[in-house]
Amino acid sequence: MLYIYKMKFLYQALFLAPFVFFVHFSAQNSSKEIAQIQKARQKNPDSAIAIAKSILPKYNDSSNTKANIYIEISQCYAHIGNKNLAISYAVKAKKEALQTNDLELIPRVYGSLATQYRKASLLSSAKKEIKEGLNFVYNSPPNISYNWIKSAFLREYSRILNEEKKIRFCYNILS
Length: 175
Fold this sequence. Notes:
The protein is mostly helical.
């Protein structure tokens, strides 16, 4: 049995090696550009948005990279206080991420969208995204450790509950 498993693994490794190299090379290029966007976001979010939008057409064939760029654009808009556009780009990121098989990107996008909804005080939508993200994590292969993702979802859910608590408190004072 062990021999069959090793042969199957060797076959997969030899078959997939050219594809892995291509994906790794493409990911390196997109990683550098995403890092450039992140660096620009710290200094000038408007500049980061312009950079991101200029490189976006280059990755029309890569839903993974497009999703990552959309997340960056969303965070830029959140940074400058434009909640509507932050949500809009987070939704675009989710749409692209769901077209991939990236088991780390998809929960990250759910979390990012939940955060944008919470910041816009759309708490029921934020909870929905957290629930969908957790369902995705729990239905994913067990060989991947999602502990850090679960922890991030729980932190975000805690923030949502705190916001709801503040709203109830204010409502009770005003009643």
